[in-house]
């Protein structure tokens, strides 16, 4: 008999697990565009059986490792097959699904969760009356697999989720899923931002370098949908909003590092990074050196903080 257990997926209304529940290795709450992005890794256990009756989000299950054949049922069909690395299962909101992956072997699954409002916004952006979220098993997507790598690295390097990063990732991941299933889902041809839009949004980013901001905030300032804004910003600037924000943070950090009284961790905090590791990784991606090496190159000797004696 099935015993009801608390769902590890908070966005699920009903989820029954038989056997070992999946182990959540990363969990990131995002903005209104997606409920959450998380990784579920069952590890080397006996697997699990799960029944989901009423999930409010559109969900993509991206398999980051190949599996042995396992049973699944959704959309009125039964499946038994192995999945290659990068394959994914797409399930529209409210889809009743059942998975018996006890024979699938050790695996790692990345979950993308999209709110229905995000799909509606994308349909408006593409000039379509509506878009239908796909349902089924799809061939490997190198794009989604690469994106999951980026998301994992970001999750591992941060204590606090970067809203702008997750928003941009959500928008592009959702478009990729729809594009693969709908040949008509092509972006509307548009140019970059108007000068006033670019000035206001870039000023907003610069004024809040140390603060979390969202794609929804920036697109509202420009009077555009999140999808249109993200693409138009990249056309105008040559990089996406999040990359632009990170570059400006690191440029500001380079200036602060010239002050020998500021420890590296203080500089990281002042420009909006949660920890020194994330700061160092981003700084090196723009300047090809670590913050410490940057200081050495500019002849700066940072004052070492002395630990208080007991």
List the helices and strands and how they pair.
Layout: E1 15-19, E2 23-29, E3 36-41, E4 48-52, E5 58-63, E6 70-74, E7 77-81, E8 88-91, E9 97-100, E10 108-114, H1 116-125, E11 136-138, H2 142-157, H3 163-181, H4 195-207, H5 215-222, H6 226-237, H7 241-256, H8 264-270, H9 276-287, H10 291-297
Antiparallel strand pairs: 1-4, 2-3, 3-10, 4-9, 5-8, 5-10, 6-7, 6-9, 8-11
Helix pairs in contact: 2-3, 4-5, 5-6, 7-9
- N- and C-termini, Cα separation: 59 Å
Main sheet summary: 6 strands, antiparallel
Shape: globular
Quaternary assembly: single chain
Q: What share of residues are in beta strands?
A: 15-25%
Q: What is the alpha-carbon Rg in Å?
A: 22 Å
Compressed to H and E, one letter per element, the order equals EEEEEEEEEEHEHHHHHHHHH
CATH superfamily of the largest domain, called what?
A: Jelly Rolls
Can you offer a commentary on this structure?
The protein is an alpha+beta fold. The chain folds into 2 domains: 15-181, Jelly Rolls, CATH 2.60.120.10; 195-297, Homeodomain-like (Arc Repressor Mutant, subunit A, Orthogonal Bundle), CATH 1.10.10. It is built from 10 helices and 11 strands. The strands form 2 sheets. The protein has a 6-stranded antiparallel beta sheet with strand order 2-3-10-5-8-11. A 5-stranded antiparallel beta sheet has the order 1-4-9-6-7, with no helix packed on it. Helix 2 (142-157) packs antiparallel against helix 3 and helix 5 (215-222) crosses helix 6. The protein is globular and about 65 Å long. The termini are far apart. The relative contact order is 0.10. Residues 1-15 and 306-310 have low confidence and may be disordered.
């Amino acid at each position: 008999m099935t015993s009801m257990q608390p769902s590890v997926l908070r966005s699920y209304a009903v989820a029954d697990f038989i056997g070992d529940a999946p182990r959540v290795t990363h969990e990131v709450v995002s903005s209104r565009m997606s409920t959450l992005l998380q990784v579920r890794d069952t590890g080397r256990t006996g697997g699990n059986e799960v029944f989901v009756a009423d999930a409010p989000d559109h969900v993509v299950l991206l398999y980051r490792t190949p599996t042995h054949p396992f049973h699944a049922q959704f959309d009125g069909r039964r499946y038994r097959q192995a999945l290659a690395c990068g394959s994914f299962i797409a399930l529209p909101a409210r889809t009743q699904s059942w998975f018996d992956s006890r024979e699938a072997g050790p695996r790692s699954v990345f979950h993308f969760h999209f709110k229905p409002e995000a799909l509606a916004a994308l349909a408006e952006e593409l000039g379509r009356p509506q878009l239908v979220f796909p349902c089924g098993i799809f061939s490997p997507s190198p794009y989604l697999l690469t994106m999951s790598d980026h998301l994992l690295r970001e999750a591992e390097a941060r204590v606090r989720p970067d809203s702008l990063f997750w928003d941009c990732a959500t928008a592009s991941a959702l478009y990729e899923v729809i594009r693969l299933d709908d040949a008509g889902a092509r972006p509307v041809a548009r140019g970059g931002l108007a000068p006033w839009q670019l000035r206001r949004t870039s000023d907003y980013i610069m004024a809040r370098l140390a603060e979390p901001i969202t794609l929804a905030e920036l697109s509202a300032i420009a009077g555009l949908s999140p999808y249109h804004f993200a693409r138009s910003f990249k056309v105008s600037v040559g990089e996406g909003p999040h990359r632009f924000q990170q570059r400006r943070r690191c440029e500001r950090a380079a200036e602060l590092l010239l002050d020998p009284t500021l420890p590296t961790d203080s500089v990281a905090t002042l420009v909006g990074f949660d920890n020194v590791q994330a700061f160092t990784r981003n700084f090196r991606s723009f300047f090809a050196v670590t913050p410490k090496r940057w200081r050495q190159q500019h002849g700066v000797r940072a004052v070492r903080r002395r630990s208080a004696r007991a």
